[in-house]
Design a protein that fits this description.
Elements lengths: L20 E9 L4 E8 L3 E12 L29 E8 L2 E7 L7 E6 L4 H6 L5 E6 L1 H15 L4 H7 L10 E3 L6 E5 L13 E5 L15 H19 L6 E6 L8 E6 L12 E3 H10 L3 H4 L2 E6 L3 H9 L10 H11 L12 H12 L3 H11 L1
Antiparallel strand pairs: 1-2, 2-3, 3-6, 4-5, 7-14, 8-9, 9-10, 10-12, 11-12, 11-13
Helix pairs in contact: 4-5
Length: 377
């Protein structure tokens, strides 16, 4: 089995993060404790947009370690529970207390992701907006989606830089260099690279001609099986995680059109795991084993955000943002068609007579009632 690539020197950015100037907040996620900002680096360019994402790191067990013995003053690693902890009391009521605490500097780190220069697509991706579910048939893929992604997708230069070891070589966790079934495994930008509880890796294949699920067929089964097994083995060896506790899946639509698999622990509620976005690797392999051209024949739902040009193209083909509403006359006719009680107004029988008929139908004849009693006895 190929061995993990040795670490190399980390490249320095072309910008100074401290000189970022805010234009507006794109998202502020209180659940994930993250914020996405749009701005510029005016010392480099006043016009090129930059996106800066700050996300608070998840807790590690060592962050809350306590002294191993009473004689030990503080834990060996930085911890909340030491003499450097600053505590401000908000209130104490019976058994309940509320405090604001500031730990030592070593525990105050915040993960930051920078995209510079950022395109309109990047800004759209990190912005809060309306979402719509698209049901993409094979015909719609060929007619609308494929031409769009071919002409306006994100640049893949950064992907090829990784595959060719021009950039991020120091971040590679594992590599299988086989040109047909090989791939590179490395941390996703959403992972801080420290807390295994929140592990998030990407497996990027070496082949250049598979954009997404739509391109997969039976001839790619060896690639997918190797991607699944070699990734599990590498993660188990390096991080000590049980392979049966790993979630491995593809996104559709993906954020970039070079086939890659997302890997994280099933106990971690990672972004993008919802059913309308993710497709489990196990399921994809099974589908192709049953039907080699499954993804050329299947209808694949996916989500588009307001402002996406692809949404506008689908809107031209079928109503997406607004659905047709029945007029009052059509709505009444539909109700009368589906509700038998609504048609009673057209009967020439008087209301009292209709009520009598209802009572007669609902009340069994005496003999019928007796027979029922006898059968139940």
């Amino acid at each position: 089995m190929p061995e993990p690539v040795e670490n190399a020197e980390v490249k320095s950015p072309s910008y100074d993060l401290s000189k970022f100037r805010l234009k507006r907040i794109l998202t502020n996620n209180s659940v994930r404790k993250s914020i996405s900002l749009l701005g510029t680096f005016p010392d480099i360019s006043e016009t090129d947009d930059a996106i800066v994402v700050f996300e608070k790191n998840a807790y590690r067990e060592s962050d809350v370690a306590t002294p191993e013995s009473p004689s030990e003053e503080s834990p060996k690693k930085p911890s909340y529970f030491n003499a450097n902890l600053k505590v401000s009391t908000e209130f104490v009521n019976n058994i309940y207390g509320s405090f604001q605490v500031v730990p030592s500097r070593d525990l105050c780190g915040v993960k930051s992701t920078v995209i510079y220069p950022a395109t309109d697509k990047h800004i759209e991706k990190y912005s809060v907006c309306q979402k719509y579910l698209i049901r993409e048939t094979p015909d719609l893929y060929q007619k609308i989606t494929l031409p769009y992604l071919t002409s306006s997708q994100f640049s893949l230069e950064w992907v090829y830089n990784i595959l060719e070891h021009k950039q991020e070589k120091e971040r590679i966790v594992f590599e299988d260099a086989d040109p047909e079934t090989g791939f590179i495994l490395l941390p996703d930008l959403k992972w801080d690279g420290r807390n295994v509880e929140n592990l998030y890796l990407l497996g990027i294949i070496h082949k250049h001609d598979i954009k997404s699920l739509r391109d997969l067929n039976g001839s790619h089964l060896d690639l997918l099986r190797n991607l699944r097994q070699a990734s599990k083995d590498a993660i188990s060896k390096r991080y000590g995680l049980n392979p049966n506790q790993l979630r491995m899946y593809f996104h559709y639509q993906p954020s970039f059109y070079h086939l890659h698999v997302h890997i994280n622990p099933v106990r971690n509620d990672a972004p993008g795991i919802w059913c309308e976005k993710s497709h489990m690797l196990d399921t994809v392999i099974n589908n192709l084993e049953l039907l080699p051209d499954y993804y050329q024949r299947a209808t694949l739902p996916f989500v588009l955000y307001e402002g996406n040009k692809l949404l506008d193209l689908y809107e031209q083909e079928q109503p997406i943002r607004k659905v047709a509403v029945l007029s009052d006359d059509k709505e009444q006719a539909e109700q009368e068609r589906t509700d038998p009680a609504a048609t009673e107004g057209f009967s020439d029988v008087e209301p009292e007579e209709r009520q009598c008929k209802r009572i007669k139908l609902a009340t069994p004849e005496p003999k019928e009632a007796e027979a029922t009693v006898q059968s139940c006895a």
